[in-house]
Design a protein that fits this description.
679 residues, alpha+beta, 5-stranded antiparallel sheet, 27% helix, disordered C terminus
Length: 679
């Protein structure tokens, strides 16, 4: 029998070398081992590049002739099924140490019913010589040490001995399924034996959830699956090879989502005496990126597409909640928002399906557009999050309208902002004057070219400058001819906004392109990171939170400036924002609050136009003792023509600021604040 094995594989140096090692280490026969090792060495000298071709063949000769201790998982057993040798790759594949395998029965590596029958198969072969799986490649399932079942391809041959002295060698390799296919292994009766990793990814159910269950109970279309099982039980092998055992449009139940429609083809696996059916499920449409959390934000499920985008392992994500995928301060605030969500959905939040920021494993910000649905399952709340790709530009288009103007103020083109942003379709503006929608420009429409020229001069000196204005739909009224009723109607439809003016240089144009940016004021936030001394280290977290916009300056100009240049703080330390103003005086000293999240505060801020701001401010303490501040408008203001005109003159805005500050009766420690970005 040993001779017949080498007759079948006369050019396989690894079969000869593997047998030589077996003789030396197991049979303690070094002289005979040397003989086979010499044959292996001779073959290796004559080998060219043929092994690569052999590895591509999908039959027993391929697996057995190309067996290599460094690349193949190999197990050698005796006639009683006792493992004599299990190489390093076999140990790794199955999750065991060498000492845990050698001397044990190989049936320990099989799930029921195969484990109960394997010794009987061996006895039948020894007594009758009848082959069941010898010298062929079979698709079977193996049992990992961690007690999960996974599919393998197995090629077995007898390498020596007769009867009770027989020695068998098995070569194992993990079954590779083509991309887009989900593999489910079932008994002919329909009981699920194993599923691949993609099953959990596609349906949210683990092997433990489905093991032993009838396949039809996992679907909406039980009758169709039962008919397919009946057809497979009676089908000859030829029908499987030709792909005749198939059905289209079967919906499998998802643990967290709506049923998933798949097309099914069935392959034949197992052995001649014990058939096993391999169901190939191909979803009819891509699921996309998905996450499911419980009511507290703990991760219940996340599919592979989402994991790949984030760069986390399955084990790492299982320990995270959704807030840990967010940048500060949202990672600290999100838990509270989930616990007590506001009745009104903020327009720039994930609940409104706006573009938001998520942080990957490398701590890089990624813009995404989530779609969230909430459902109750057995009295527990689950949040299902479908994540759509987005971009910084798309996120900004949700928050602002960008107009391209000529020097006279006529709108030449617009961005793709939604009509819901300001209550009109941006395309309606093309050919109109920008004064038709901006309140302060409407009152100055007769001198608009000169006004735009002064705005251009302003932003040349102070990049990032912003003006508080109001934006209304184009109503066709001339400002100078409007009566009280028309003025009232326009005022009701005017929405607070922040206006920026940008000159864009192009290599192929002598004259810069004129851009006007109109941000919806209630969708703007400032996110500012400060060190323990109150000095700004990062003036913004992402492009979606342009902090300088609120204060009328560029983010670049805020770096290394004191936070109290922008917020009216009682002291120079930012951590005072963590203190509860209702606490007794002296109960908390700066730097000893112990709070992670401060209370919501309403406080004054400073704009470059010299007029005060009324802001909502929240602060959180990070692990590196920094304080991250989130500021948004408490009072939303429309345009003030007099204030706007002052910003276009040579009048010193800092003097105007000083006047407003003195009227505000600043507390101790706030004196000396100057115009944002000027100190």
């Amino acid at each position: 029998c040993c001779a017949s094995t080498f007759h079948r594989y006369p050019n396989s140096s690894q079969v000869f070398r593997g047998y030589a090692r077996f003789l030396e280490h197991i049979r303690s026969d070094p002289w005979t081992a040397h003989k086979y090792a010499s044959v292996a060495a001779s073959i290796e000298e004559e080998e060219s590049g043929g092994n690569d071709a052999l590895m591509m063949r999908d039959d027993s000769a391929s697996m057995l002739e190309s067996v290599n201790e460094k690349t193949s998982a190999v197990i050698v057993i005796n006639a009683e099924g006792i493992i004599k040798v299990a190489n390093r790759l076999a140990q790794k594949l199955l999750g065991y140490k060498k000492s845990e395998l050698e001397g044990k029965n190989v049936s320990m590596l099989m799930p029921p019913p195969f484990s109960h029958r394997h010794n009987g198969y061996l006895r039948t072969h020894i007594s009758s010589g009848k082959k069941r799986i010898l010298d062929s490649v079979r698709e079977v399932v193996a049992l990992h040490k961690e007690q999960y079942v996974f599919p393998i391809q197995l090629a077995v041959t007898k390498v020596s001995g007769v009867g009770a002295d027989s020695i068998f060698m098995g070569v194992l390799r993990r079954y590779q399924v083509e991309p887009g296919i989900i593999r489910v292994w079932v008994m002919p009766s329909g009981a699920v034996v194993s599923v691949d990793d993609r099953f959990m990814d596609s349906f949210g159910k683990s092997y433990q959830d489905v093991a032993g269950r009838p396949l039809q109970t996992l679907t909406v279309d039980a009758d169709a699956v039962i008919k397919l099982l009946d057809k497979a039980q009676a089908a000859p092998e030829e029908d499987f090879r030709m792909g005749k055992i198939a059905i289209r449009g079967v919906s499998f139940l998802h643990k967290y989502m709506d049923p998933v429609e798949v097309d099914i083809t069935v392959d034949l696996g197992g052995s001649d005496s014990q058939r096993m059916l391999a169901f190939n499920l191909r979803p009819t449409k891509a699921a996309g990126k998905l996450m499911v959390t419980d009511a507290r934000g703990r991760m219940l499920y996340i599919n592979n597409d989402m994991r790949e985008m984030l760069g986390y392992s399955v084990q790492a994500l299982s320990k995270l909640d959704i807030s840990q995928l967010m940048p500060p301060p949202y990672n600290f605030l999100h838990g509270g928002w989930m616990k007590e969500p506001s009745a009104k959905k903020p327009k720039q939040s994930c609940r409104s399906s706006a573009t938001v920021v998520i942080v990957d494993a490398a701590k890089q910000n990624i813009p995404i557009k989530p779609s969230i649905t909430t459902r109750e399952v057995e009295d527990t709340v689950q949040h299902v999050v479908k994540v759509h790709p987005s971009s910084w530009e798309q996120g900004l288009d949700e928050r602002r309208l960008v107009l391209t103007l000529d020097t006279q103020g006529t709108v030449l083109s617009t961005s793709n902002a939604a009509s819901s942003l300001f209550g009109f379709r941006p395309s309606e503006l093309v050919g109109l004057s920008v004064s038709a929608i901006v309140d302060v420009l409407a009152e100055l429409s007769l001198e608009l070219p000169a006004v735009l020229s002064k705005m251009a001069q302003k932003v040349t000196v102070k990049p990032g400058y912003s003006w508080r204005v109001g934006v209304h739909p184009p109503d066709g009224y001339e400002h100078s001819k409007m009566g009280p009723l028309e003025r009232h109607v326009r005022a009701r439809s005017t929405q607070p906004a922040l206006m920026q003016f940008v000159l864009v240089d192009h290599d192929d144009r002598e004259i810069p392109e004129i851009k006007m940016l109109l941000y919806k004021a209630d969708m703007v936030s400032a996110i500012i990171d400060c060190d323990p001394h109150g000095t700004i280290t990062r003036p913004t977290v992402s492009a979606l939170d342009p902090s300088g916009l609120i204060f009328g300056c560029s983010e670049r100009s805020m770096v290394r400036r004191p936070l109290r240049n922008y917020l009216q703080l009682p002291t120079k330390h930012a951590d005072t924002l963590l203190q509860d103003d209702k606490a007794k005086k002296g109960a908390m000293k700066s730097g000893t609050t112990g709070r992670k999240v401060g209370p919501l505060k309403i406080m004054n801020g400073f704009h470059a136009d010299g007029a005060p701001l009324e802001l909502k401010v929240l602060a959180v303490a990070t692990n590196n003792k920094h304080v991250v501040v989130k500021a948004s408008f408490e009072v939303l203001e429309k345009g003030d023509v007099a204030r706007f005109q002052r910003t276009l003159t040579s009048q010193d805005e800092a003097k105007s600021r000083s006047a407003s500050m003195s009227q505000a009766a600043l507390p101790m420690g706030a004196e000396g604040a100057t115009e944002p970005g000027l100190q």
